[in-house]
Amino acid sequence: MKAAFIKTSVVLVCLLTLVAPCVAEEINAQKLLEQLDENLWANKKFISGRLIIDNGRKIRTLTQDSWMEGATRSYSHYKSPAREKGTKMLKIGGKLWMYTPRTDRKILIAGHLLRQSMMGSDLSYEDMMEDHKLSHAYAASVEKMEEFEGVQCAVLHLVAHDKKTTYQTRKAWVNPITKIVLKEERFAKSGKILKRILYKDYKKIEDRLFPHTMIFKDLLKENTKTTYKFDVIQFDIEIPARYFSQSILKR
Fold first, then answer.
1. Which residues contact 16 (CB under 8 A, 6 or more apart)?
2. For residues 154 and 175, what is the distance between their CA atoms, to the nearest angstrom?
3. Which distant-in-sequence residues (6+ apart) come within 8 Å of 238 by Cβ?
4. Residue 210 pLDDT > 90, yes or no?
5. 81: preceding bond cis by omega (within 30 degrees)
6. DSSP labels for 55-107?
7. Thinking of the domain 10-250, which architecture would CATH place it in?
8. Per-residue pLDDT band at 118 (split at 50, 70, 90)
9. What is the C-alpha to C-alpha distance for residues 182 and 9, in angstroms, rounded to an integer?
């Protein structure tokens, strides 16, 4: 009886060691990336949220409203704290303008400036304004199956189609059952890891599963992190045309 039990246990262990590679082979990586986009991406959306910036010495919170349309147009309006209140950002195509009421002028943020830290956070201006379908920008393959926070994830290796894409490669830890991403890493062209993002607090919004918390870590900095909390999320809304005009910056 004991020998039979041991034999059964050995067989189970062998089977479990074979499951992960088999599952990885069966997953269509590009299809999984498309399903991930179906949860995260909408042609039009509104987000009201908080950026909680921890620089290792102090923590400050910025509140903002953002409207996004497609991959090329977005507008953000900062409501607090007092120092940043009234700051606005407008993205049209590949250009980003920023208006600050303290100087009462708008500036064009372009080129290498887009990669700089936004307001001292772990996000760059590009990170903050980015909103495109990953399945359109990247080719995906399954690197391996790996457990993350108790979930067996497919680790997707993403390679950019366009050489101008900010992050030429990414890795995403995706739950193949729920089609949600739990962790992401973004890399420079050299292969050096630059950012790590954790996706948390997923909730059902209509027919989507969407994270209400994202934790950004700039790996070129020490003892910092930025938590992006989404308080209000609305998809497929009507956005006034004036929100994507430079005239809104000084209203």
1. none
2. 6
3. 44
4. yes
5. yes
6. -SS-EEEEEEEEEEETTTEEEEEEEESTTTTT-EEEEETTEEEEEETTTTEEE
7. Clam (2.50)
8. very high
9. 32
